[in-house]
Amino acid sequence: MSTVAAEITVKLPDGSSKSLNPGATGADLAQAISQGLYRQAVGTFINGELKDLFTPLKSGDTVKILTAEDPISIELLRHSTAHVMAQAVQNLFPQAKIAIGPTIEDGFYYDFEIPDHALSTEDLTKIEEEMKRISQSGQKIVRYQIPDVDKQLGEFKSCGEKFKAELLEEHRNDSPTLYLMKDKEGKVIWNDLCRGPHLSSTNLIKSFKLLKVSGSYWRADEKREHLQRIYATAFWTKKDLDDYLLRLEEAEKRDHRRISKQLDLFSVHEEVGPGLIFWHPNLATVRNVIEDYWRDEHRRRGYQFVFTPHIASEELYRISGHLETYGENMYSPMDIDGQAYRAKPMNCPGHIMIYKSRLHSYRDLPIRLAELGTVYRYERSGVLHGMLRVRGFTQDDSHIFCTPEQLESEITGVLDLIDALMTTFGYTYKAYLSTRPEKSLGTDEEWAMATSALENALKARKLDYGIDEGGGVFYAPKIDIKLFDAIGREWQGPTVQVDLNLPNRFDVSYIGEDGNRHKAIMIHRAVLGSMERFCGGLIEHYAGAFPLWLAPTQIVILPITDRHDRAAIVLNEALEAIGVRTYIDNRSETISYRIREAQMQQVPYMAVIGDKEVEAKQIAVRHRRQGDLGLMSAEQLLAKMKTEIEQRSLG
């Protein structure tokens, strides 16, 4: 007697349930809900995981049918478009061997080994055209479980797909899958080793753009094969793609390396080595102003400033655990009198040494130590990027030592400081609470206490925040602040960590009210992060047009002829007397040329002095954005600039 398999029941996002036949897929569920949803469906979200539309469902699954309206569905589109690009490359360059093609923020890339051919801009145009042909052909994208790994390995090796073979061998016990590209007759015309998920058809792939080619290495190992990487992006609509390309164009205009050449801000020298920044006078001025402001704000909040050495005995980093957990990012030891020393990668062990130099009572706490400390970390040359990714940088580091009872209020104080500084620089931001990862140190009680203190501080500040589950570091939960710049890009910003590790390693303690020793709580926090990255980001945020209080030159004085030089000197002296950064441009060039050059150099104000101005004892004032501001007396100009500078106006 035959038996009929029982129906399966799945849960929907609204809390309702749906019964389906055994073996039903996301596509079946979409059709059971409505024909409209079925037509729009592009994938599924099953038990919190992104899946193909034709993934079989199990009873008890929580399932959401995804459409192009769901932000997470863009992953399906981009992952699938990456395979279409790889197919197009191999169609045009049969000798090409494919490596990997993951999605990344705002797009995807694919790595290729193409013997005897360097991809050009013209090649990208041809590849795009071939991708359009493939997309319009309506190929089906079908998931295929590899039944015989050894047989598949043989096939890969026979056609020279060494990278696929290496990956398959590595994942032979992980139920590896191929994705087959089938034509309308069901014939397999291309395949790739991939775990997915993907769209079900190339028909859905319409709006994409290949962006650039760069070099890479297989497995990011400079000793392995050199590959060519194509960066690309894809969106569901042409409008979204066009908007993104406009943002890219604006970002290119704001590239801090490009602006630096125009404004003479910084340089990197091959003779010195990559990732080491030379600050030119203009940007050094900006940095000095920021650091002075940073010190003033910290001083007002009870921080004490310290300095620690750039090198230390290797033993310090053995105690701290950095040698064990961070050794690959540290530079090789140097031998000093038979003792191994290291360039410091972090400032925290040095601050602990200062704290431990004498015994502390609970009455001394909290102790807030702050340092603009230069550290050195190894970064592969391929990831170095102007001022944003470097090997030597100065962090605005601070470590707060406090009692458990003081922890929440200290975190709240840090959040107040973050808000004050970020608002002053014109950034909006969002906070994320990063919780305990799978691998971590410390007890459940310690993690609960630290996480609760961070969350309570966020709530006390009434900050909108997200939860980054498992995103904490191995020794502590943390708050990460993401900054949004003038064109909406997200930047890694301030971070606040409650450390459960180093106080134990170094026995960081204090004498409590009971006369006994207690472990101090240690807060790590950086507000600006590295000065290099922060200033590089500011260049792009302001597109080189620093607000008046930060501008390297705040006003340029432009006497029209030699006979106006004396009036220019008098004004210059008056401006310098109140601390304004000014100079006189009395070159023999025309006044219009000098005005234009001052605007190109992003000088906020220009003071033009000619016969009319001397006679009226006034100055013709221009602003780099607003143009002619009319005539002002010297007193009016000085008062205007003084107010703007003191208020740190962003105008």
Overview of this structure, please?
The structure is a single chain. This protein is α+β, with helices and mostly antiparallel strands. The chain contains 20 helices and 33 strands. Helix 5 (149-158) packs antiparallel against helix 6 (162-170). The longest helix has 20 residues, at 281-300. It is globular, with a radius of gyration of 30 Å.
Strand content: 25-35%
- The low-confidence parts are none
Our count of helices gives 20
Give the radius of gyration: 30 Å
Question: What distance separates the N and C termini?
Answer: 84 Å
What topology, given as strand order, has the largest sheet?
A: 16-20-21-28-25-24-22-23
Q: What percent of residues adopt helix (DSSP H or I)?
A: 25-40%
Query: Care to count the β-strands?
Result: 33
Specify the structural class.
alpha+beta
pLDDT averaged residue by residue: 94
User: Major sheet: size, sense and barrel closure?
Assistant: 8 strands, mixed
Q: What is the approximate shape? A: globular
Please describe the topology of this protein:
Layout: E1 8-11, E2 17-20, H1 26-33, H2 35-40, E3 43-46, E4 49-51, E5 63-66, H3 74-92, E6 97-98, E7 103-104, E8 107-113, H4 121-136, E9 140-145, H5 149-158, H6 162-170, E10 177-182, E11 188-193, E12 207-217, E13 226-235, H7 238-253, H8 256-263, E14 266-267, E15 278-279, H9 281-300, E16 304-305, E17 311-313, H10 314-320, H11 322-326, E18 334-336, E19 339-343, H12 348-355, E20 367-376, E21 392-402, H13 407-424, E22 428-434, H14 444-460, E23 465-468, E24 478-484, E25 490-499, H15 502-505, E26 509-511, E27 517-519, E28 521-530, H16 531-541, E29 555-559, H17 565-577, E30 582-584, H18 591-600, E31 605-609, H19 611-616, E32 619-623, E33 627-632, H20 634-646
Parallel strand pairs: 16-20, 22-23, 29-30, 29-31
Antiparallel strand pairs: 1-2, 3-4, 3-5, 6-8, 7-8, 8-13, 9-10, 10-11, 12-13, 14-15, 17-19, 18-19, 20-21, 21-28, 22-24, 24-25, 25-28, 26-27, 31-32, 32-33
Helix pairs in contact: 3-4, 5-6, 8-16, 13-14
